[in-house]
Amino acid sequence: MKRIAKPPPVERDSPVPDQPPPVPGKPPPERRKKALAGMIGIDLVLPFAIYYGLRLAGADPWLALMLGAVGPLIRIAVTTVRTRRIDRLGVFTLSILAIGTAVGMFSADPRLLLARESWLTALIGLWILISLAGRRPVLFEATIAVMPADAAAQWEHDWDTNPFFRKIFRTMTLAWGLAFILDAVARVIMAYTLPIDVVPIASIGLLLVMLFAIVYGTKFYAGRKLATDGPRQSSSTETRGAL
């Protein structure tokens, strides 16, 4: 029987250099988004609800503000027990709560407790600005953490290969850091000028307005820069669409 010669092996094409490398598996974005929503609900909404609930029950403003820290403390404790470790964000939040509680124990001035919220936003702003000196700013890391794996891979590829993309993200990070610093200044002003029971709801409103302005402001800036200068800088279609 005549043997049929095997076809010569076909050489595989070398990887295309401008394709993003595969990204190792990480928790689904839905799980990370749920965790973030839970943290916002407990750290922001719950203290707000506790304060006004206690005030309606006739509690003193100082007591209502002090008990508002119970929710975040419970969240950190439950997370630490479940994961058997405490992350950097938990240490950061716990430190702020500890400092605020210590201040409250030595002062009965509720306005001082109201002003303590400015410490958190000021430190977040400084943390964001300091991250500009690192390899990747915290805004970039936080954004890709909640993105689908394919989109996150494309962004990481663009970060490594496209200086124009890095410049846009560093500018956006600078804007976020300055926005949190301005938010902290506004909180101090509100704490000492507005009626005490107006300050908590005004603080929530300020945060929502600030986040809306900075999110859509930086999104508009990035989209416009990528639309006008992006094609000349070889920005990917996926990146332009995401921003």
How would you characterize this protein structure?
The protein has 243 residues and is mostly helical. The protein is built from eleven helices and no strands. It has helices spanning 29-56, 61-67, 70-83, 88-106, 110-115, 117-130, 138-144, 149-161, 163-193, 199-228, 237-242. Helix 1 (29-56) runs antiparallel to helix 3. It is globular and about 60 Å long. Mean pLDDT is 76; it is low at 10-25.
Secondary structure: elements and pairs:
Blueprint: H1 29-56, H2 61-67, H3 70-83, H4 88-106, H5 110-115, H6 117-130, H7 138-144, H8 149-161, H9 163-193, H10 199-228, H11 237-242
Which key terms come to mind for this protein?
single chain; about 240 residues; mainly alpha; 11 helices; membrane
What is the structure about, briefly put?
With 243 residues, the chain is mostly helical. Helices cover 72% and strands 0% of the residues. The longest helix is centred in the C-terminal third of the chain and has 31 residues.
Give the class from helix and strand content and strand pairing.
mainly alpha
Total DSSP helices: 11
Strand content: under 5%
Unreliable stretches, pLDDT < 50, 5 or more residues?
10-25
Give the overall shape: globular
N→C terminal distance:
64 Å
Report the order of strands and helices. Answer: HHHHHHHHHHH
What's the total count of β strands? 0
Mean pLDDT: 76
Characterize the main sheet: none
Keywords: Membrane, Transmembrane, Transmembrane helix
Region (Disordered): 1-32
Protein name: Intracellular septation protein A
Biased composition (Pro residues): 17-27
